[in-house]
Amino acid sequence: MADPDDASWPSESAPSREIISLKSEVDQQTVVIEGGVVKKRLRRPLDLLRLVVALGLIVVFGGAAYFATGTAIGIGEDITEASRKLPDMIVAVLNGVGGLGLLTLPVAAAVDLLIRHRGRQLLDAVVALIAAIAVLTAVKLILEDQAGQMLLALSGGKSPPGTPLLPLLGGLVAFITVARLMGRSRWNIAAGAVVISLVVFTVITGGIAIAGIAESLLIGWATGLAMRYVFGTPTTRPSGLEVAAALAKAGHPISLLRAQEITEVGRRYSGVEPDGTELEVFVLDRDLEGAGAAQAAWRSLRLRDDVTRGAVNMRHTLEHRALLAYAAEVARAPSAKLVAAREIGPDSSLLAYERVLGKRFSALAVEEITDDILDDTWRVLLALRNAGITHRRLTASNLVLTPTGQVRLLGIGSGSVASSDVALRIDLAEMMCTLALLVGPDRSVASGRRVLGSDTMATALPVLQPVALSPETKKAIRKNKDVMISLRDAIVEIRPDADAEHIELERIKPRVLIMIILGSIAAYALLSQLGQVDLVTLLTNANWEWMIVAVIASLMTYPGAAWSLTGFVPERLKFHRTIAAQLSADFATLVAPPTLGTVAINLRYLQRSGVHPALATASIGVSQVGALLVHLILLTGFGIAAGSQQDFKLLDEAPPGLLLAGAAAIAIVGGLFLLPPVRHRIKSRFGPMLKQVGPRLITVAQRPGKLAEGIGGMLVLNLGYIVCLVACVKAFGGEIGFSAVAVVYLTGSVVGQAAPTPGGLGAVEAAMAAGLTAAGLSGGLAVSAVLLYRLITFWAPTVPGWFTFNWLQKSGYL
């Protein structure tokens, strides 16, 4: 959310948009010039946020009822039995209130809306009522037609099943939502009483489960919110004249009030009092409550000690900003002074600040920022630190140099009081970065040491991370990456003997979140496959002799993987530790895609084994290139061999849609390579690595023994997995050619490496099972063979992989 004293305020010149001048007087003195036209209807972010919540609840309640049908039905029956013990008089009252309310509440609300000249809102409410009834009726008909488990879950498990949903109840809720009855006194009591009476009476009479009632209410609410967001709602934003009147009541009469900007959370004005004092006025209103809430929620989820928030509640936002302004004034921090915080009306309020005149640091030249100015800037931060106040947006735009040479602070509304030590350190780190971007790291750190001392400055090192900075500073740091490195080096020079401290600022990284989502999808796909197979039966029915062959072949892949790495590393590596690293990579694939996890483990292992980081990266690159070439050669060779077999019809039986999708993907990738920006980006990203790969490849090529070791390891690795898959097929009595199985494995491994899920989970199983089926095996046998193969090569090695992973870490090799 924008700050009332944010330095991004426009100049006093009128905005380029259309200007409407409203000259009217308040106490015969005030002239209001309002820029832009306030829309009569707007879409409120809070409605969209509520819609997302409603849809999420629909999925949650529906999923709970579907997967726990027996429990949901049992709970519903218990509640129904308990409600039937209510006295007959109460039941009669509930029946009367619900029945009459269902008919009279919409009529009474319609009359009220017409009296208040809200005809458009009434029309929207009626449309929402009809839409909710239509949606619920359509869903009801679909459920009754399918007669599946969801119908039983929502109807209460009756035979024959009752109604799964209540369209009239959902329509009433949609009408109440769009008419905004719950936001008005008296009407909220009447609407709540009617809805509750209908729900309780429906529970007493039975015929529908609690889950069905909940889904009806939620779908009606969601439909109303969707209509309210699509059609918009009448604005409650106050006019400039009302703002001027509220300022006059607060003791600050305005002779001129000029609208500066219409923002996503309100409006900004500049005002002039009769004595010439200039004010900056920020108007908050309920129309845009919820703006920035999603970003604030994500930042709070991602970062520790984060206090940012979206404008979910106007009153809380007003109080929070006023508290910070008053706290900064008590701390004698030179920030914009709050002179008024007042309600304009039930749906709006204002914050008025003394205008800070001067030049922002973002507009200053380097030579204008003297050492005295830098020291004064650090003293501003010191005043906040001593009071336990954080700013959280210490950017160059929020620092102002006044005509008298004083440094003043803007944008104080984003911070917090009584802040934690980590939050105070983050402010310190951001100030250091902001000044370093302006005058260089050396001057920034030197000035901070003069004001704060070396010990305090050194505490910023653990939090000197881009993720902790405000968006503006983070963007500037990404464009000047050397600044962060230079700052870290400068702080290390201050206290070279200090113990290294690590502070993990991120609760969860975006990549981890994506992996969790993709892993969940893959796990669901795998569980759906496992649901078709009994694992106990799977293992008992398999031929143990072939299973032993499969295990031995799987074990042979680890020396092969070790040779494929050591063959491209001229430095000497301990063979047993290299095998342990490959086994650890199997454990790492539980939380990362196969290629990513293996590369990360091997790169770390080589560096810890004494190989220079650049050479380690080059060796991994050479190994990956070699593995790709060997893989393509094997795939081509076995493909030709398999193609000569009459029973191999992998391509013939492949779905046409899959082939078209593959061809389209190849065409898209090829087309992207024709675009200069894409080629330049690929060159800039992979060019340095390829420059290292070339010399490394030449070094390895000069040692034929090493080259043979690397290529031989790759052959052993691939053949081991192929033999393992062949043995798994044989374990269930399957008869299929060796070449065909090899093609299936080689194709499936490519799919697994391309899949973003941990270990290629789900993708590998689906690809290999489909390949074996197309090659001539029955569907059940193919799934059984693939599951056994994955059990031996993917799941089983993770247990010893965990032990080797910890052993290598304790030994200092990971």
Structural class: alpha+beta
Spatial strand order of the main sheet: 1-2-5-6-7-9-8
| Average pLDDT | 78
Report the β-strand fraction as a percent range.
5-15%
Helix percent band: 55-70%
Distance between the termini: 43 Å
Q: Determine the number of helices (DSSP H or I, runs of at least 4 residues).
A: 30
**Which regions are unreliable across 5 or more consecutive residues at pLDDT < 50?**
1-28, 646-659
Q: Which outline best applies?
A: flat
Taking the sheet with the most strands, its summary is: 7 strands, mixed
Strand runs, count = 12
| Cα radius of gyration in angstroms | 34 Å
What report would you give on this structure?
The strands form 3 sheets. The protein has a 7-stranded mixed β-sheet with strand order 1-2-5-6-7-9-8, sandwiched between helices. It has a 3-stranded antiparallel β-sheet with strand order 10-11-12, covered by helices on one side. A two-stranded antiparallel ribbon has the order 3-4. It is an alpha+beta fold. Helix 3 packs across helix 6 and helix 28 runs antiparallel to helix 29. The protein is built from 30 helices and 12 strands. It is flat. 42% of the residues are buried.
